[in-house]
Write a structure and sequence with these properties.
Number of strands: 12
Number of helices: 9
Helix content: 25-40%
Largest sheet: 8 strands, parallel, barrel
Strand content: 15-25%
Oligomer: single chain
Strand order of the largest sheet: 1-2-3-4-7-8-9-12
Distance between the termini: 21 Å
Shape: globular
Length: 296
């Protein structure tokens, strides 16, 4: 396991704050360490959503997770979007802000999807400049998530994991490691998911996403509508064996179940985290240090 100090605090185990559970979260104060919210759902001041977020923020750490930054686009960064994001951050004081390594707009037309970037040096330089501009505007380091992908652009000069690792260092940003997306993309494109994990700088990984996926023919689709699969849990354990404990959350955005189902998934995350932190990088149990005993 890499011992480099992470750049982001270890928050524990969190959930996405979804409309279906607003009332329960506010009334019962569940034993969840933190909540992630979709940035764009809370940008407008006032209204019930904003009141809920401000109430939850008084009791829990909150992080903002965006889907509209379009950091890989050739379109100019949107000043209005960044102004609203900065205002929301001032009001809520999130622990961090994240978005996706993707593009979603071209010539001012929005695809409403997270589309893959070109893994080339020119693309890397372009995106690094844009990340630095966003961070300067917000006055903080952001995290970028690896999206699931279903096609690959021609002319790649490096792998996705090489691109993400180099971008994080060059732009001085963090990584939101979506373990399910690594698994989905590895299946779809035929690469080794553990090679992906080994290539990332551990200190840059601030957060981990876990989610369910669906099977459609030969493809896996990141649908966020089911339980985390066993193969993804094992990959999560492998990730923690490499980088150490990291803030972890369950994403469940479609066919959202009762809150106690999500709490059960968080309990599984804690179990798998303990398993991962107790194993060496090769998957074998880590020998106890001299003078210490393994926890019961």
């Amino acid at each position: 396991m890499n011992t480099s100090a992470p750049l982001f605090p270890q928050l524990g185990f969190g959930l996405g704050l979804r409309r279906e559970h607003y009332q329960q979260v506010i009334q019962s104060n569940p034993a969840v360490d933190w909540f992630e919210v979709i940035t764009e759902n809370f940008m407008v001041p006032g209204g019930n959503a904003r009141r809920v977020l401000e109430t939850v923020r008084r009791d829990y750490p909150v992080v903002l997770h965006g889907v509209s930054l379009s950091i890989g686009s050739l379109d100019p960064l949107r000043d209005d979007y960044l102004d609203e994001l900065a205002a929301l951050a001032r009001a809520v004081e999130p622990i961090w802000i994240s978005d996706h390594l993707c593009w979603g707009s071209a010539h001012g037309v929005y695809a409403h999807d997270l589309l893959p970037v070109a893994y080339t040096e020119a693309s890397l330089a372009h995106i690094a400049r844009r990340v630095q501009a966003v961070q300067d505007r917000l006055g903080r380091r952001i995290l970028l998530e690896n999206p699931s992908t279903y096609m690959q652009l021609a002319g790649a000069e490096m792998t996705e994991w090489q691109f993400l690792a180099e971008l994080a260092g060059r732009a001085d940003c963090g990584i939101l490691l979506d373990v399910n997306n690594v698994f989905v993309s590895a299946h779809n494109h035929g690469f080794d998911p553990r090679a992906y994990l080994r290539a990332l700088p551990p200190e840059r990984i601030g957060q981990i996403h876990l989610a369910g996926h669906s099977v459609e023919g030969e493809l896996l689709i990141d649908t966020h509508d089911d339980f985390v699969r066993d193969e993804v849990w094992q990959l999560y354990a492998d990730a923690l064996a490499l980088c150490g404990a990291r803030a972890t959350m369950i994403e469940w955005d479609a066919q959202v179940p009762a809150f106690d189902v999500l709490e059960g998934e968080l309990a599984r995350a804690r179990e798998w985290a303990a398993r991962g932190l107790g194993q060496s990088v090769d998957g074998k149990p880590r020998a106890p240090r001299k003078g210490h005993r393994d926890a019961a």
